[in-house]
Amino acid sequence: MSVILELNKVTKRFGGLVAVNAVDLRFEAGSISSVIGPNGAGKTTIFNTITGIYKPEEGEIRFDGHSILGLRPDQITARGMCRTFQNIRLFHNMTVLENILVGAHTQTPSTAWGAVLRTRAFKQSEEAARQEAQRLLLYVGLPRGLGDQLARNLPYGQQRRVEIARALASKPKLLLLDEPTAGMNPQETESATQLFRKLRDELGITVVLIEHDMKVVMNISERISVIDYGQKIAEGTPAEVRKDQRVIEAYLGRHAESTTISVH
Amino acid sequence: MSVHATSTNRFLRIFSGPFGALLALLYAIGVTYILTQDPRSLLGRLLLFSALALIYFIPQRPAVKFLLGAVIVLTVVPTIGLRNPFLLEIGFQVAVFATLALGLNVVVGFAGLLDLGYIAFFAVGAYLWAFFGSQQIWHINEAPGTFTVYPYFPFPAWWFWLFIPLGILASAGTGILLGFPVLRLRGDYLAIVTLGFGEVIRVLANNLDKPINLTNGPQGITPIQRPPLPAFLTTPELLATLSQWAGRPINANDIYGFFFYFFGLLILGVTIVIARRLDRSKLGRSWTAIREDDVAAVAMGVPLRRTKLTAFAIGAAFSGAMGVLYAANRTFVSPETFSLTASISILVMVILGGLGSIPGVVMGAAVVTLLNIDILQSLSLQLSSLRQGPDSIPLLGIPWRELPTQLDPARYQRFFFGLLLILMMIFRPEGMVPAERARLELHEGDAEPIPDAELEGDITPDEKLAD
Ligand SMILES: Nc1ncnc2c1ncn2[C@@H]1O[C@H](COP(=O)(O)OP(=O)(O)O)[C@@H](O)[C@H]1O
Ligand SMILES: [Mg+2]
Q1: Under a CB-based contact definition with an 8 Å cutoff, are residues A79 and A62 in contact?
Q2: The domain containing residue B321 runs over which residues?
Q3: CB A156 to CB B466 under 8 A?
Q4: Same domain flag for A164 and A177
Q5: What is the pLDDT of residue B59?
């Protein structure tokens, strides 16, 4: 198995705060992994650093065999990595289909001239993009007629799915999902978990989740990395991580009521 | 949706179906009749404009609306314009400002980048033709002032046609020039820097009269050539026939009135088509995406710098051709036209009409331009003619002539804009024709209604978190 994403001693600071502290992470191609840790541990910051939204102060990030340090976020996306956001960031006043079409930006070859002159090539690429967007809409489990709705009018659970469809439209090899089941009820969470597995099994996409729901984490992850105070404190299979003394302390010590690590 | 939408819809429903189309046509014919009786009637002009607005709103197929609109714009206006050339002048100005508003709308409405110096791009186009289409090149070593006007020019008048594309290129280039330094700025900072940029261009126009006299300073450049009219449009026979029709002498200058009206409309039409096509393309979606959430947009692969720069360049390009045309129309260009107030005026058109909405922006431009050059001026004129007469104000009993000149409506131009804007922001902040309305209209045809059961999907909505 080859490594698709590798972080070596990555450090990200905000002023005096070390949000990510010399973190090493490796993700195998075709795996499903989770990054867990208490709130404020630095998980989202790790995603932001990987996707180029933040520049790390130190360390190296390699994706698909090449260093991606210094690349802009859109260039990184073009190389086959895409993500969703913890606090859903859809384009609210665009329709669901248009949202997905923006995700397809790097995959749509049309030019401004083609658009103005309505060339055959433009029409074809536009039509193909629309069909693909419609297909993705269904693929993530959204109803057919949803495409023309404004994104902001959708219920929360559906918005999360649109965000996944939008990310899929960029044809990623690696998908980073930031708390994709937050705010979902148990049935929604269950069907979302099935979707994540389907992405890997059917599309061969490497999936990395930041997740708070321990049932989901233990159920779906092949490997888990645990972050606390910006540092990686443990790593391993679900069974290994569950027994790790530092992990238990990190969770039970400070967040006993809010999060539980016991799973049946 | 809003109360407005439903209440207007009820009124507009009488214009549906073939009967409705006929009704709209009758309305247009009625207005035309009023105008043939009195070509100078302000009421007639307002009704004519209302007929155009009505045609946009009525529930008819686009082809029918287009046909009705074309009849008014291409036949009624020119016919009446033969009798009252002012109507053509208004039409031309509306076309100019609607095009500018559409250009600004690309930057502010589509891409969400607040630009308070937009008029600078119009100035670039106008000064480009002002310099090459006038005799200024012979005076570059002279101190600014009024020069002897020669009966010949350094460059042939037909170069005007060359300078239409050149104006577009020059304005687009200036747009990119402005775009680079402001790429990293947002919101307030962006507004301040673009405002400064607009002023820089105006100040340059004011001061580039030394060391070499390029702009002739505050005095401005004149005369500027107009493109040569084809000979068959100015034959004595044609002019005689037209004079007979119009009941007044028609000369070559009147023919120019028609030329500028039609050519202005053509540029506006092309601009509308381009704006629409871009809006519904990958580039248009990218603009909307960076307006909505630039972090999400860049994370989806939209390059921020390039997308913003194209917005500035394309938005600016729209005003380049109009700048050239405007310079030829006025035969005079001076820095005064390109003040900050002019930039704000165009922004008002965009906001009044509906940010991001193409029909809205055109309508906003028409309303503001009509208020500016027609309605308020006409009211002032009527007031001053009343002041000459012996009559008194009804009910109050005060003679008109004692009314202080301070109450002249034309003096309250800015006041009316302010009032209009405040009222709009209170009662209809999304503008006259909101972008979303236009968007939903677009989809009216292609989406069949979704059965409720299907909409719910397989996941139940979470009421607590859905906003
Ligand atoms: N843009 C930022 N500026 C300053 N501090 C930040 C920024 N983003 C995150 N932080 C801080 O970094 C730490 C880690 O945050 P985050 O990565 O969001 O945690 P998590 O996702 O694990 O809950 C927090 O203390 C947070 O306040
Ligand atoms: Mg987080």
Answers
A1: no
A2: 103-362
A3: yes
A4: no
A5: 87
Q: Tell me the pLDDT tens digit for each residue of B210-264.
A: 889 999 999 999 999 999 998 888 899 999 999 988 888 898 889 999 999 999 9
Does residue B243 belong to any structural domain of this protein?
Answer: yes
Its ipTM equals 0.93
Give the global pTM.
Answer: 0.89
Q: Domain containing A72: what range? A: 1-80+172-264
- Window 224-243 of A, Cβ < 8 Å to B: none
Q: Do A103 and B461 touch (CB under 8 A)?
A: no
Determine the distance in angstroms separating the CA of A156 from the nearest CA of chain B, rounded to an integer: 5
- List, for residues B400-416, the tens digit of each pLDDT value: 887 777 777 777 877 88
Chain B residues with beta carbon closer than 8 angstroms to that of A184: 459, 462
Which residue on chain A is closest to B356 by alpha carbon? A93
Asked whether residue B126 is domain-assigned, the answer is yes
Q: Between chains, do A102 and B284 touch, taking CB under 8 Å as contact?
A: no
